[in-house]
Every structure is written in C-alpha cells, then in structure tokens.
Amino acid sequence: MTTTGEDHVTARGGPWWWERRRSAVLDVGLAVVSALECAAEGVPFAWEAGIPVAVGVVFGLVAGAVLLVRRRWPIAVVLVAIAVTPAAMGFLLGIVGLYSLAASDLPRRIIGSLAGMQSVGVLIVMFVRLRQDIARGDVEVGDWLVPFASVTMALGVTAPPVLLGLYVGARRRLMESLRERADSLERELQLLAERAEERAEWARGEERTRIAREMHDVVAHRVSLMVVHAAALQAVARKDPEKAVRNAALVGDMGRQALTELREMLGVLRAGGDGVRSRAGGSSVPLAAVGAAAAAAASRVVVEEPAEGPSLAEIDELVGQSAAAGMVVDLSVEGEYRSYAPEVEATAYRVVQEALTNVHKHAAGAKTYVRLAHRVSEIAMQVENEPPSGVGSSAGLPSGGNGLVGMRERVSALGGVFVSGPTDAGGFRVSAVIPAS
C-alpha cells in the first residue's frame, strides 16, 4: 500500500522541525557521537594551541553538537565543519554536514561552493600537516606523496557524501512529485466519479420525465376517447342498438390500442433495465474503476426511444378517432408530406393528440380545427377549438394539468417553439413549430 502526499504530511509527529521521531533520534545520536569525537580531538588541539585542555574539550563538544541542526540549517553545519578543519577535528561533522547539504533543496551553486571550500580546507590542512611530519622526521616519504595524499584525502572526505546526498535529494524530490501527482489523480478521479454520478442522476430524472410524458399521452388520449364512447353508448343503448354496437366496438379498439402502446413502452423499459442495474459486493475496487463504472452507468441510464413510435402518417387515423367520438374536426394540411426524424414525427403526433384530448376533456362538442404545415426547414401544427356549446361542454374527465407542460417540454427539447392559450372568441389554441432536422 502506497502512502499519498496527504498521508505523508499528516504522518508528521516528531518534535520541532523533525517530521518523524526516528529522525530526531538519529540526529541526536549523530550529534552525540560527533560531540564526543570533537571533544577527544580537542585535547591535542589544546596542547598545540597552548590553551587549557578543558577549553579544547568544551570547544569540541559545542562544535560537534552543531550536527543536531543538520536538517534545519545544513549551511551552518558545513560552515562550522570548515571552521574547525584547521584544528584537525570534526571528521564526522564534515561528512554528515556535506551529505545533509547536498540532500537539501538549496541551489546547486551553494552546495558546490561550500563543498569546494571544505575540500580546499582539508587539502591545505592535510598538506601542511604532512609537511610538518616530514620536517620533524616522523614520516619518511618522497615529496611527490604529499600532494597526492592531500588531494586523495580531500576528495575522499568530500566527494562521496556530496554525491550520495545529491542522489538521495533527487530521489526524495522524485517521490514527492509522484505523491503530488498521485494526489492530483486521486482528486481528479473523485471529481470525475462525482460528475458521472450527477450525470447519471440527471439522466435518470430525464428518463422518468420522458416515461411520465409517454404514459400520460397514451393513457389520457385513449382513455378519454373510451370515456366519451362509453357515454355515447349509454345514451343510445336503448334507442339505437346498432349505433351502440358500433360504439362498443370502438371502445374495444381503443382499449386494445392503449394496451398495445403500453406493452411496447414496458418492453423498452425491460430492455433498458439491464444497463441500469447496480452492482453490490464486498470486494473493493480501485477509484479509477469506480469513476469509469459511474461514467458508463451515466451513458447507459437513458433508455432509447421506442423504435416504432407514432408518426404524422397516422394523423388521419387520430383525427378519425376523435370524429367517431362525436367531435367535429376539420383537418387541413399545407405542403407536401415528407418523412422526418422519428423524434420529430413522434413529438408532432403527440402535440396534436394531447390537444385533441384536452378538447374532449374541457370543450366536448366544440368544433375543432387541426392544421399541419410542411415547410422547408420546419413543421408547424395548430389545434384550435371554438367555444364549447354551453351546458354539458365538459366530459367530466379528470385533469392533472400536465398535458400542456409535457407538450412544451417535448417541443423545447427539439429546439422548437410552443404557444398555447385562449382565443379572443372564447376557444383555445395550441401551436407548435418544430425544426425539421
């Protein structure tokens, strides 16, 4: 399991400037060892300098203890190491200080300058001490060995910690960059999943609205005609048995048509239900898979429109059904009929159907005019009824007030214009214009 950048930041629990307690323990241990080393090296330094030994020991303790702040102030540690180089002390202090400096985020020119100063200091001190040992006769070597040993010692003390520190610092920065990138990707995937869920919820709402419109159009129109025919059947059952038989047959036809349309709609819902079924389980999946699954669900949640929906070719039959129910309907068509996109034809049909249903509900017996106009880039339709003929103008059918809203939503979804309202003569008019493509 990897640790993200946010978890890495929250994992800080060390004192002062340390991120972890073990880092503080490590630095305290290094500082104690360095202080003891410098204190031991302070004794010969005090003898050579002619100062009290206690002063040399205290000086070494203070200088070695500077290693405690190597993570916070690496420059100060290196400067102290350079300062105590002439006293032949601070071997561990110099190595660890150079490593900490190279591993920090300081500019390379600063790291190179301080490392160069440390290397030159070690070179000079080593060269002088070897020359002094040769002069005293403590060491008998050739003159060529002094510069070689000095250069080797200087490079051996400074180059390895600097190179190691540069490598560790680069690796640390790479890991931090990867953590930040992982955090960014995680946030993006989470945002993508949230947007996909919002899109899926919006799509489900749109689908519920579409299904409600379809159910309203199918049930309201067919049942309204069935109620009108049933009322006519009741009125003429004893007076004109033949007409009563015809009305009964019409009621049966209307019921069968309504059942057929409802069956087709439910079949489409069953076919689209597989794509919306949610998955449940105890196993965990990656966040990327969650985002992809949510996006896929959003793209599948919208159920396709029925392949065989109503069309403008059935307008004559629709008007004939209303006429058979006793409505006086005048149908006029302008322009030459041509095929349109299925959603355009279905919407135009439903507008006329719902307008005629409203006439049956609220203005029974009123003369109605249905006009269609096939234009170059659009199709226009208008259903207008005259004022109802006084008493009994209403069929007593319930109305939910959703018919006009549904028509406006259908037309607006296709980029069309829908207008409805009472006429000056006391009737009612429904008009719609839908783009042809």
From TrEMBL:
Return the Pfam families for the record: HisKA_3
Instruction: Provide the reaction this enzyme catalyses.
Output: ATP + protein L-histidine = ADP + protein N-phospho-L-histidine
Keywords assigned: ATP-binding, Coiled coil, Kinase, Membrane, Nucleotide-binding, Phosphoprotein, Transferase, Transmembrane, Transmembrane helix, Two-component regulatory system
Write down the CDD domains for this protein, in alphabetical order: HATPase_UhpB-NarQ-NarX-like
A GO cellular component annotation in the UniProt record: membrane
As recorded in UniProt, coiled-coil segments are: 168-199
Lineage: superkingdom: Bacteria
- Is Coiled coil among this UniProt entry's keywords? yes
Boundaries of every Signal transduction histidine kinase subgroup 3 dimerisation and phosphoacceptor domain copy: 207-272
What are its E.C. numbers?
2.7.13.3
Which GO MF terms does the UniProt record name? Answer: ATP binding; phosphorelay sensor kinase activity; protein dimerization activity
- What transmembrane ranges does the database entry give? 49-69, 75-98, 110-128, 148-170
Extract the PANTHER family matched here. NITRATE/NITRITE SENSOR PROTEIN NARX-RELATED (PTHR24421), NITRATE_NITRITE SENSOR PROTEIN NARQ (PTHR24421:SF10)
Q: What is this protein called?
A: histidine kinase
